[in-house]
Structure prediction request, 1118 residues.
Amino acid sequence: MFKSKNFYSPTMLKKYLSCKHIIFNEKNENRLKLKRKPHSNIDQLRFDKGNIHEAKYFEKLKKKYSKVKDIKKLKNVDKFKETLNAMKQGYEIIYGGWLTDGKWSGEADFLEINKKKKSSFGDYFYEVIDTKNSKKIRGDHIYQVGVYSDLLKKSQGIPSENLYILLKDGKKEKVKLNEIDDVFNSHKEKYEQFLKNGVDKTKPEKCSFCTFCDWSDECEKEWKEKRHLNQVGGINKINIKKFNKSGIKTIDQLAKLNPKTKIDNLRDEIKKKRIEQAKLQIEYEKTNKPIFKPIKENLFIRKGFNLLPEPSKSDLFFDLESSVWAYEEKLEYLFGIWYQENGKQNYLPLWAHNKEDEKKNLINFFDFTKDHFKKYPNAKIYHYASYEVNALERLTSLHKVKHVEYDHYLHLNKFVDLFRVAKQAILVSENSYSIKALEKFYNFERSGDVKKGEQSEEFYVEWLETKKQKLLDEIEFYNKEDCLSTFKLREWLIDIKPEGTSWFTSDKEEMEIRTFEEKIIEYRNKIENSKFKSKNILKLMLDIIGFYNREQKPEWREHFDRRDFTDEELIEDKNCIGNMKQTSSYPDKKSVVYTYKFSEQEYKFKKGDGVVIANNIEPTRKDYAGKIVFLDQINGTLKLRKGKSSGEDYLPKTLSIAKQIMSNDYFINLNNNIYKFIDSLLENQKSYKALISFLDCEIPSIEGIKVGDKIIKTDDLKSEVPKVVSKLKNSYLYIQGPPGSGKTTIAASTILELIKKNKKIAITANSHKVIHNLLDKLESAADDENIDFKGIKAGKPDAEDDSFYKGKYIHTNNTDHSWKHAINDKSVSIYAGTKFHLARGYCQNKFDYLFLDEAGQLVLSDLIGIGGIAKNIIIVGDKLQLGSPVQGNHPNDSGKSILEYLLGDQDTIAPEKGIFLDKTYRLHPKINSFISQSFYDGRLVTDEITSQRKIHFSNNSLIKSEGIHFIAMDHQERSQTCEEEYKVIDKLMKQLIGSKFTYNDKVRKLDLSDFLIISPYNAQVNYLLSRLEKGTKCGTIDKFQGQEAPITIISMTSSDTENLPRHKSFFFSRNRLNVAISRAQCASIILFNPRLLDTAPSDYEEMKMLNNFYKLQKYKIN
Prediction:
């Protein structure tokens, strides 16, 4: 079919996965006289660097192995036969081996011998190694090398278990084929089918790959000729589909559309903006005169023109030039600042050709601007789009310098983003708001050879090869023009600024360095000037310092950004409840309770959360909006209790709320403990042994167990685990508990045994709910054995507060006096509280054991902050269940959870390094087979009780047996709510309720309480709760972690990846899928649209996530 090119190759498969229309262009290149974009200097650099990387590795292999065959250098031979002969002769390394099955073919970089298994060649087999000049494994790498591995399997008669990719840093990364084979084979089969009958049916569509595609100019030409809607500025694929559905296919049709015409599922304000945009662009085509129009609805609110500060004579205009390909790591190689002073124009270029120079430039940038602001306090730093500010945040974190100045500039509103101003202020007759597109409005003409950013990087790459100063001069001139254009844009925006709009003013004029910032600087200097032997731990501590401050930065940035959003816009913010309308208020003691109604929207709030006014810009009004005391997600009703204060005792009639951000005061004790730990290290004190052992990832020190021996030697975990824990010698131990393995029960029985030995035990977790769950189990175990003990739980003495716990033996008290007394009281054994409670200074070195439950939800800084309170640390949890998402920009390992740090790339703990609870008492064997193989390396087995649970399904039930059941859904344009899936759930529950259920030799009928209905999204949960029978247990995956039921029904809701309201890593998360399915004792039913799988994974992790969903298709029942 395709004679001129080999379309059955790894390269073509990669192109197909990037964009199907590429294959059409490749096939029709000559017939349609299509023109590729010429390759750039950067393309050549990538190619050359790849070859150098490959050649270096070949030299290394030649030194390691004696029997090496170089196929690549052979000319005029059948390379497949040569490769086959080399494999038959048992060469240890085959370089450039050619593989084919008669249809597919490709050249592998290296085939490496492995003597652990037999093949058709003898007592050995081969595995593929491919070199990639990349920092991490990408999805297209795996598809390419996967083809080689597939072809190799056909040659040697057995599959390889792994393939390997050598990254640019020299790391040889392993890819387990069983973790990617389902998604790989499916995409390969789809591609083969596409080659047979799908190539000529494709149409070009804009996508993220267009930037890199050889054919993007051809597609752009076609879109312009056909007047495609994607030529309208600001439009996206989802908008286009909705317009298409209503018969609007071209920019001309859109411009003529009556604004009153209803477009299904498209908000009116978006529709009107797109119509207006289309009209402007068409008018520009007719007149050839650029046109702009002020956005009227933004004229008198804090948006657009009103974000412009009053100009200063010495404002700074800032631009960065960066390169991804020139060096091993991304480099900001030029900082450019243009400004006027004393009537003179000045330009300051700061060049960097390595990371050390980049660090110096970062320091010089902040030193210069700080001095400048002393002379000109009202001056600002103008930039265009968010790149510069985000880059500065990344660099201050990476280089660990000037983070204080960066934070202060944010708080003082020193950065002004003119992209944000322009986009909110005016509609323009361009289909883009790039600064190059806007330059025609203020008549800015460029005179340099470099016209755009990609050329700048190309010139820089060429300079690396030639060292011609003229190239750097051209880049510098381009950067200066970018800065100058930013200045001219600012001047134009001021010129067209409508009367009645205001100047933006900052809430603060200046900031003093804060105590916590002084501490960060002090301890970074201490570490950098120290001579401590364990450089690894010190390097980690250098990264850890300032963790809590970095972690809160995104929240604070969002907090300040929201001030520029309307209540209607905040409906789309998942961290808010937007545009609530007050219906009533009444006094309640010293507070006022306000009732609000809100429309259906995605949010992350729960009863008890403290909230703030999301977009508060009134200087006299405090941000705090009170505490949520009632939240009805079905009827959209919320109640806030807010204390009365002098001069302000009311909340606005229209209100948008966001979560209250913790103040730095919450983290003082944790940070102080981190600094104490650093002091201990620097002074070579022999303390913190358990914590240091953990940070060094040492094998736990246990009396009677040799290093390297299995820690657990019997199947009687309930009695053996407590014995092992009691023999810990100033060390740590990880207990991994997969779903239904009884980890909380094991932890409780272990703690009880320690109580019997008169040990003092601290218990913590990321939430009071998790702590209380463990305390409940502990009290129950104590009752079973008639053990009496005393315990204290930190929390508020308010029975309605989620921190309150009142048990038979453990009581809540939060006062320092009570805790100090309890710690010195020998009769008290248990001390429970969150990290904030246990970080108090009087807890240091007071306990024999510290238990951390659900440790995957705690980060490394948390452990270091409280790890000094006990001689031994017990870590309980599961890396493959839900963790705590990290938001900040953290260097190296400092942003990892405790379990991510300990386990690295491993899913389960090795028998000599920790305890793996290998038996589940919850999951039916048919469910466990998927869970165990997909998540736990096949190590999780079932207790016999799990197969004795049975559901007697009726004849009319769609579900006929226990296990996993996949129902393929067919719906379109569903994002966060889905009626089609509701209908299936309703039908299933009506079929299943009343079915006989056998459990522990007892037979009863299933009722509503035996079902958990699960969805990734609050919006779908709310939708289902409003329609399903009252009393139905329905919630998000997060809500049901730790719970179980005979049957779970999982509604994945979205139609395809274009309609995902969040990123793919959230939706396809291995951890979330594991938790969702493993709530079920007998049957887990998954409603899922197969179109969600029509996506190419970007990296290895994403491919593993997708692979699990492909596996689920094997359980399809409809």
Observations:
- The chain has 37 helices and 39 strands.
